[in-house]
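Work Package 3 committed the consortium to producing structural models of liganded targets before the mid-term review. Because experimental data for this complex are still outstanding, the team generated a predictive model from sequence and the ligand definition alone, so that downstream docking and mutagenesis planning could proceed in parallel. The input record is reproduced below exactly as it was submitted to the modelling pipeline, together with the SMILES string for guanosine-5'-triphosphate.
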Amino acid sequence: MKDDDFMYSDDTIAAISTAPGEGGIGIVRISGDKALEILGKIFVSYKNKKIEDFKTYTLRYGHIINPDTKSVVDEVLVSYMKSPHTYTREDVVEINCHGGNVMVKRILEIVIASGARLAQPGEFTKRAFLNGRIDLSQAEAVIDIIRAKTKESSNIAVGQLEGSLSKKLGIIRDELLGMMSHIEASIDFPEEGVDDVSYTELEESCTKIISEIEEMIRSSETGKILREGLNTVIVGKPNVGKSSLLNALLEENRAIVTDVPGTTRDIIEEYLNIKGIPVNIIDTAGIRETDDKVERIGVERTKKYYDSADLAILMLDFSQPFTHEDEMIFELSKSKKSIILVNKIDLAQRIDMEKVKKYAGSNEIIDVSIKNGIGLDKLKDKIYELVYRGEVSGKSEVMVTNIRHKDLLKKAKASLVSAVDGIKSKLPLDIVSIDIGDCLEHIGEITGETVREDVIDRIFREFCIGK
Ligand SMILES: Nc1nc2c(ncn2[C@@H]2O[C@H](COP(=O)(O)OP(=O)(O)OP(=O)(O)O)[C@@H](O)[C@H]2O)c(=O)[nH]1
Ligand SMILES: [Mg+2]
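The resulting structure, written out as tokens with the ligand in place, is given here.
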């Protein structure tokens, strides 16, 4: 992207803010100095009220007209919000017209023809950020709310928009600034000397902040899953009931289930909500040595998907002997977070449970019968527990969900660790203060105070038009 694309422009922008498709209403949003003036050209209010008398934060009923032909385009309600207490901190006008694909587009065209420019994706929110109404992490929360997959994930995003993360980072920032000025003071007045007390105090402060940052980093594993979903793959030898499990969790007959081993030949991916956790679940071709070409490709793909999964559900058959194939699957899942399901406990036992336990190691084994609906609740509880395990905090605490934030927190931590090393070796304080300055910089990148322009552009390009 060119530099001048980033530059804040004060022209008036417009876009359709509602989703495309049929709906009761559609909204065209306009932001900028000329918002009201443009509305004046294309809107005739009921009883012909003057546009100059339009009171902020009120709604008006009337018609959008084509300014060239003066013909009526649609019956609408318009709202006007005067700067600075608006989404973008600029004058904002919203035209509520009839929904559907045609009307909103026609009105947007008229608005553009009357002097607005089509907004880029996320440009309204970008203006909110550039005008200082929200910081960068809050702007990023806006897109997380729009994309949230479950209630839990939207709650976290709303918390972030409200400033939970910004507040926490603000406190850390103040502490770091305090340390910097402490250091500056002792450099400016060298005759007073740098005593051991300064070193001890600085080390204590750094160590405290490091542990706070660590806690935020720890929360990011749970946070990432709540934001992006838990990639879960069901693996097992043919005919153990993998597709039956997928269907049972989805509560619909999505995958074909038969008593013929090798029924599932390709990957089936579905989306589930388990106790508020978004789960991308993948049913796979049963793993076995096979001469069948199609099945072999399926098995290869299974292994590939398997590698990128967060969690494996390993399935075994209670009614069949433990075989070399089961062993292979345990072998494959060694390095993966796994839950072991022993299915078909409604049938007579032929599996050697001692062997299963031996291979399972510390992974939990759950007895299930998909046929009789036994064990599924326990599986859901286990998944929930795994996701929240290691969660350090209650729900009200800050949860880091964004990879960009996590990476910057890691860098911030590394800078402080380096500062502590410097303090321990009694390096001159102006050297130590360089590390503390770096830490401040990384924290500032999260909130947007010190962030580079191309990073900002990349973030807003992910947005949808009209937000
Ligand atoms: N008795 C009993 N049969 C079950 C149970 N779960 C699944 N089955 C049966 O086991 C057979 C195989 O089930 P699938 O779900 O197709 O097994 P799969 O692991 O997907 O098999 P492939 O796709 O061939 O790898 C079907 O006939 C199911 O009805 C169970 O809990 N008890
Ligand atoms: Mg199957």
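Reviewers should note the following from the model. The domain at 229-388 is CATH 3.40.50.300 (Rossmann fold). These observations will guide the Year 2 experiments.
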